[in-house]
Amino acid sequence: MSVETELGALLPCNVIVYENDDGVIVVSAVDPEQLVGIADNDALDSVATEVSERFDRVLAAVTDEFGSASEA
């Protein structure tokens, strides 16, 4: 956060969980690297990569447990 003060506005990293018309549970999250890219600050690239990797692990775990996940 000290590298880009306003980054906190982008980091809530919203996640939605819903059941589609076919009865499939879907977990969807915005790509953190795209959100951080809005700041246009190269110093944040490593932070964005780390957050994205963590999200990927979480979504993979959810998929393993429940069978469906997507990243928007």
Structure explained in plain terms:
By secondary structure, this protein is α+β, with helices and mostly antiparallel strands. The protein has one domain (about 5-70). The chain is built from two helices and three strands, in the order ββααβ. A three-stranded mixed sheet has the order 1-2-3, with helices on one face. The longest helix has 22 residues, at about 45-65. It is elongated, with a radius of gyration of 14 Å. The protein starts with 14 loop residues before the first strand and ends with a strand.
Kindly list the characteristics that best describe this protein.
elongated; 72 residues; 2 helices; alpha+beta
The figure for the number of domains is: 1
Largest sheet: 3 strands, mixed
Question: Low-confidence runs (pLDDT<50, min 5 residues)?
Answer: none
Q: Give the strand order, joined by hyphens, for the main sheet.
A: 1-2-3
| Helicity range | 25-40%
What is the overall shape? elongated
Strand content: 15-25%
- C-alpha termini separation: 24 Å
Whole-number average pLDDT?
A: 75
Question: Could you give the order of the helices and strands?
Answer: EEHHE
Compute the number of strand runs.
3
How many helices does DSSP assign? 2
Overview in brief:
This protein has 72 residues and is an alpha+beta fold. Helix content is 39%, strand content 17%. It has one domain.
Note the topology.
Elements: E1 15-19, E2 25-29, H1 32-37, H2 45-66, E3 70-71
Parallel strand pairs: 2-3
Antiparallel strand pairs: 1-2
